[in-house]
Amino acid sequence: MVLALFIATLYVAQFEGYIAPFNAYAALRDLRARVEHLETQMQKSAENDKQAGSPEDQLPLAVERVVPSVVSVVITKDVPKLEIVYENPFGEDPFFRDFDLRIPRYRQRGTERQQVGAGTGFLITSDGYIATNRHVVEDTQADYTVLLSDGTQKQGAVMYRDSDLDFAVLKIDGENYPASELGNSSNLRLGQFVFAVGNALGEYSNSVSIGIVSGLNRNLEAMGNSGTEKLQNVIQTDAAINPGNSGGPLADLQGRVIGVNVATVRGSENISFAVPIDFVKDIIKQVAR
């Protein structure tokens, strides 16, 4: 009996000695998993801290997210080709025929293709749908060439025009384009930092200007080539929006588009306006589906 108990005890001891290395391995594996989880959490925390940092830290990252989706829209059309001729103002009247009197007059001599304007837009889908302003693409007789951020040129087709919101949608052929992330304009706050990207003055593509949300729900009358239009409940910002910036994105410091730049008050100190992105989301879903 004593012998049997001794043998049983020895067996258990040997068995326990056998499984001890397995328990140590499991503990090491568990420790490694915990360390990896902690490293992941630290990385996420560092990224969150970076995103929640100062505007100086956030702005370059946000711009990097938005700029690839911003495009320039070049407007071209056939315009009269004029020449100056000098003619007798009295025509073939025999009484004045011998008078050496000539006055200059413009005379059309055919037409020529010219750039007549420029604006901005931004990709809203990866398959080539582009948001812009209606007044950028209002001329039904013009052609619209889209210049992508990488220098590629594409012919644009106008898919939608909305005069009430001064909003339009273009389409270019192709796929795998870098589309903008659309934000939420309903929870904007006064004083919130924003930035605008656009084809400033029709010459300087991807120009960036920073400002704040200066006002909300503004109503105004804007003067364009086709006359006056009323804009309601738009965003006011002091980010510089120059001619040529029309149709470009107004974005927050997370790189999300919260408005479509639409108008500026000439002669003012940076009083500009953007159509809230929430106003056009349903249109985008319908047109770009």
The tally of helices reads 3
Radius of gyration: 33 Å
CATH class identity of the domain at 181-287: Mainly Beta
Strand order of the largest sheet: 1-2-3-6-5-4
Give me the CATH architecture of the domain at 181-287, please: Beta Barrel
Please report the distance between the alpha carbons of the first and last residues: 85 Å
Strand residue percentage: 35-45%
Q: Per CATH, what is the topology of the domain at 181-287?
A: Thrombin, subunit H
At the fourth CATH level, what is the homologous superfamily of the domain at 181-287?
Trypsin-like serine proteases
Class by alpha and beta content = alpha+beta
> What's the number of extended β-strand segments?
13
Which regions have little confidence, pLDDT < 50, spanning 5+ residues?
A: 1-22
Mean pLDDT: 82
Q: In percent, how helical is the residue content? A: 10-25%
Secondary-structure topology with pairs:
Layout: H1 2-51, H2 55-66, E1 70-87, E2 103-123, E3 129-132, E4 143-147, E5 153-162, E6 167-171, E7 181-182, E8 193-200, E9 204-224, E10 227-237, E11 249-252, E12 256-264, E13 272-276, H3 281-287
Parallel strand pairs: 7-12
Antiparallel strand pairs: 1-2, 1-4, 2-3, 3-6, 4-5, 5-6, 8-9, 8-11, 9-10, 10-13, 11-12, 12-13
Sum up the structure in keywords.
289 residues, alpha+beta, Thrombin, subunit H, 6-stranded antiparallel β-barrel, 6-stranded antiparallel beta barrel, elongated, disordered N terminus, protease, Peptidase_S1_PA, Serine protease
Would you write up a description of this structure?
- A hairpin with a 4-residue loop joins β5 and β6.
- Helix content is 24%, strand content 43%.
- It has helices at residues 2-51, 55-66, 281-287; strands spanning 70-87, 103-123, 129-132, 143-147, 153-162, 167-171, 181-182, 193-200, 204-224, 227-237, 249-252, 256-264, 272-276.
- The protein has three helices and 13 strands; from the N terminus they run ααβββββββββββββα.
- It has a domain at 181-287: Trypsin-like serine proteases (Thrombin, subunit H, Beta Barrel).
- The longest helix has 50 residues, at 2-51.
- It is of the alpha+beta class and 289 residues long.
- The strands form two sheets. It has a six-stranded antiparallel β-barrel. The protein has a six-stranded antiparallel barrel with strand order 8-9-10-13-12-11.
- The protein is elongated and about 120 Å long.
- The termini are far apart.
